[in-house]
């Protein structure tokens, strides 16, 4: 077998942090912090002390019943008390907690004190509707302050929430609400998206007929479109009317560290979504620490994560992480390119955003419009950029670095999952960066790249990314499905390690390069090659805007590459370009990247969070059933 092809892809440039960032950073010495993190229990206990506990824990980590790990056992704490209440007795009382902006240009600011009062009213309203500790509340809401108020109100009274992304539709909503046995759905009349209003209540009206556990639907009048309240299926009440008259004080529920905080559904390899369960104490320690250290949060920061609260990134880095560290979190409702592709850069200028966190798919999309739009705005307040969700190809990284960060902001390429709750592999602002690498596991985290028998693979070789030791914000189980929890995460690879389902490789410096999901890895004539790497090679060609790659069976090589390409304006996939692209990819990846077929397309099937659904392309290719398409964009 020839040399592993992945080595050929390695991006050689190293970007050193600028001195100002180092001067300011909480962690100035990366290596020393990594060293400290080796004593896992001591490290996380230290971090846990930054939160206010009603009662201190007995044990940092209880591993007596693997893989059902417990963190900070017997500790008593409340999320909302820490994220909101404790700030109102400090100078943060009148600081903006939530800065809401939408694509129409509307704005709303809530200080920590205002947020505190609103959350208390909603918490009391939920109690009045009969919600008790342990009852599940479903949210199907726009990106707006009331959504966050509802999440925090649930956490205050100990009612786990399950947030369902507002882009999912009836089927997905019914399945999740029923699996969680939610008693209440909180929704809105609609949400703004690309100049239109998506009518959420209509979707709930249809779903609710198949959701027998739901007793009450709460509707927020958000866009002002006319809605009809009905009594056909359970009680319908307006958000404003239930909080009106409620007391603006509410005692926090004393939660055990291991009491559930939320359930969040995510897709697995089978059709049925997995209900990932996160608990209270460990999750709080994990997300507050990573928010503070990865984005180096200080008092004057304005933090903007462009995700949606319907995903884990929204839970951990729009809502809980930023509020736990007492910063200002930006909540944006709308599309990244409406009314024009400069809308995000305009918001950065207008509000003086200092830390900006988005996804490679958004970068690649906005890159297509060139540097015209970012050049129109003053982005000089930015200090740190972030990336999450998929491997960022070096071209997108460099574009982001140059045009948005103006070559002075380090990019935190954060690797993590719904299941991990918090960043696990990511640089810190002082880390020397290589475009496309997520660098090393964070302090307190141990990861390794192994073969399917759990044996570490040498540097340069691709393998399975596993996490070797538990971490505070880890999922505790899959809701009502312990068997699937054990099988999916703990039995795939021997050695008692957590299987991430991702493939990765490590370079000579110990830097990790994520290759993509294990089911998205191609095998061409016995050579392992990540679809993400092939796609990265394609998009580094000037004619290609976006690419999705799947394996196509080949009688001789097992698999060859089939590429679906969105070309930039003015290009078409003629013989000359086909020849040129083949040469280019071969040049980037080596001769093993055998291209069987290329097709030009206008669109790629994506999840609503922007991940390419190669499974759909494969199924179509092989004439198979499409399987679960509930998360497909359209
Ligand atoms: C992928 C999102 C490369 C990975 C937080 C993981 C990434 C899956 C990165 C989890 C990254 C996430 N580089 N790949 N920085 N971050 N991924 O559950 O395949 O929506 O397993 O959580 O996204 O997706 P999820």
What does the model show?
By secondary structure, the chain is an alpha/beta fold. Among the domains are: 447-517, Luciferase, domain 3 (Roll); 522-622, GMP Synthetase, Chain A, domain 3 (2-Layer Sandwich), CATH 3.30.300. It is built from 19 helices and 30 strands. The strands form nine sheets. Strands 5-4-17-16-18-19-20 form a seven-stranded mixed β-sheet, sandwiched between helices. A five-stranded parallel β-sheet has the order 7-6-8-11-12, with helices on both faces. Helix 5 (112-128) crosses helix 6, helix 7 (170-180) crosses helix 8 and helix 13 (360-367) crosses helix 15 (394-404). The structure holds 5'-O-[(S)-ethoxy(hydroxy)phosphoryl]adenosine. 5'-O-[(S)-ethoxy(hydroxy)phosphoryl]adenosine binds at residues 266, 311-313, 387-391, 413-418, 438, 500-502, 514, 517.
Write the layout of secondary structure elements.
Blueprint: H1 19-24, H2 30-36, H3 40-48, E1 59-62, E2 70-73, E3 76-77, H4 79-83, E4 96-102, E5 107-111, H5 112-128, E6 137-140, H6 145-157, E7 161-163, H7 170-180, E8 184-188, E9 191-193, E10 196-198, H8 200-208, E11 216-220, E12 235-238, H9 239-243, E13 255-256, E14 260-266, E15 274-279, H10 281-294, E16 302-305, H11 312-324, E17 328-333, H12 343-351, E18 355-358, H13 360-367, H14 372-375, E19 384-388, H15 394-404, E20 411-414, E21 447-450, E22 462-467, E23 477-478, H16 482-490, E24 498-506, E25 512-517, E26 521-524, E27 527-530, H17 531-539, E28 544-554, E29 558-567, H18 575-589, E30 595-600, H19 614-621
Parallel strand pairs: 4-17, 6-7, 6-8, 8-11, 11-12, 16-17, 16-18, 18-19, 19-20, 29-30
Antiparallel strand pairs: 1-2, 3-13, 4-5, 9-10, 14-15, 15-23, 21-22, 22-24, 24-25, 26-27, 28-29
Helix pairs in contact: 5-6, 7-8, 10-11, 13-15, 17-18
Residues 266, 311-313, 387-391, 413-418, 438, 500-502, 514, 517 line the site of 5'-O-[(S)-ethoxy(hydroxy)phosphoryl]adenosine.
Domain AMP-binding enzyme C-terminal: 533-611
Domain AMP-dependent synthetase/ligase: 93-471
Keywords: ATP-binding, Ligase, Nucleotide-binding
């Amino acid at each position: 077998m020839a040399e592993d092809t992945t080595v050929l892809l390695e991006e050689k440039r190293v970007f050193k942090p600028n001195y100002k960032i180092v001067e300011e950073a909480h962690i100035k010495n990366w290596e020393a912090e990594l060293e400290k993190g080796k004593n896992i229990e001591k490290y996380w206990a230290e971090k846990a002390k930054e939160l206010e506990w009603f009662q201190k824990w007995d044990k940092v980590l209880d591993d007596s019943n693997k893989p059902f790990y417990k963190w900070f056992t017997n500790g008593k704490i409340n999320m909302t008390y820490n994220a909101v209440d404790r700030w109102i007795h400090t100078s943060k009382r009148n600081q903006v907690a939530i800065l809401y902006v939408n694509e129409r240009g509307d704005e709303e600011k809530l200080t920590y004190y205002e947020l505190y009062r609103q959350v208390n009213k909603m918490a009391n309203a939920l109690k009045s509707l009969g919600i008790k500790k342990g009852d599940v509340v479903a949210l199907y809401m726009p990106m707006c302050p009331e959504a966050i108020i509802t999440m925090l109100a649930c956490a205050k009274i100990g009612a786990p929430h399950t947030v369902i992304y507002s882009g999912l539709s009836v089927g997905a909503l019914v399945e999740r609400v029923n699996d969680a046995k939610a008693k209440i759905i909180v929704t809105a009349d609609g949400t703004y998206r690309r100049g239109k209003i998506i009518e959420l209540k209509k979707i709930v009206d249809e779903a609710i007929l198949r959701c027998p556990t739901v007793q009450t639907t709460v509707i927020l009048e958000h866009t002002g479109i006319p809605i009809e309240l009905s009594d056909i299926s359970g009680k319908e009440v307006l958000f404003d009317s239930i909080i009106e008259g409620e007391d603006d004080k509410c005692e926090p529920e004393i939660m055990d560290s291991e009491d559930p905080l939320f359930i969040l559904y995510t897709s697995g390899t089978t059709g049925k979504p997995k209900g990932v369960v996160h608990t209270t104490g460990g999750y709080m320690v994990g997300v507050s620490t990573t928010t503070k250290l990865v984005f180096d949060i200080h008092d004057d920061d304005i933090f903007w994560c462009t995700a949606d609260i319907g995903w884990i990134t929204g839970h951990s880095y729009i809502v809980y992480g930023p509020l736990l560290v007492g910063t200002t979190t930006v909540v944006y409702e709308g599309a990244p390119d409406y009314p024009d592709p400069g809308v995000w850069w305009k918001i950065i200028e207008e509000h003086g955003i200092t830390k900006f966190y988005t996804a490679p798919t958004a970068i690649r999309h906005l890159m297509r419009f060139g540097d015209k739009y970012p050049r129109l705005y003053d982005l000089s307040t930015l200090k740190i950029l972030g990336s999450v969700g998929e491997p960022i190809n070096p071209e997108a990284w460099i574009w982001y670095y140059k045009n948005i960060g103006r070559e002075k902001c380090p990019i935190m390429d954060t690797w993590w999952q719904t299941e991990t709750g918090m960043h696990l592999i990511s640089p810190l602002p002082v880390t020397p960066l290589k475009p496309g690498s997520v660098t090393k596991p964070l302090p307190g985290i141990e990861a390794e790249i192994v073969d399917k028998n759990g044996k570490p693979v040498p540097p340069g070789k691709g393998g399975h990314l596993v996490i070797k030791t538990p971490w505070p914000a880890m999922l505790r189980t899959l809701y009502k499905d312990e068997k699937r929890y054990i099988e999916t995460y703990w039995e795939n690879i021997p050695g008692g390690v957590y299987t991430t389902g991702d493939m990765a490789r490590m370079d000579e410096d110990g830097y990790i390069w994520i290759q993509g999901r294990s089911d998205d890895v191609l095998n061409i004539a016995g050579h392992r090659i990540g679809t993400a790497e092939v796609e990265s090679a394609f998009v580094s060609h000037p004619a290609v805007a976006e690419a999705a790659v799947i394996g196509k069976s080949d009688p001789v090589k097992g698999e060859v590459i089939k590429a679906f390409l969105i070309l930039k304006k003015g290009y078409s996939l003629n013989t000359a370009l086909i020849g040129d692209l083949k040469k280019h990819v071969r040049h980037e990846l080596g001769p093993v990247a055998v291209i069987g077929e290329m097709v030009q397309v206008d669109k790629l099937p994506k999840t609503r969070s922007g991940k390419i659904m190669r499974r759909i392309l494969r199924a179509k290719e092989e004439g198979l059933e499409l399987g679960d398409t509930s998360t497909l964009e359209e």
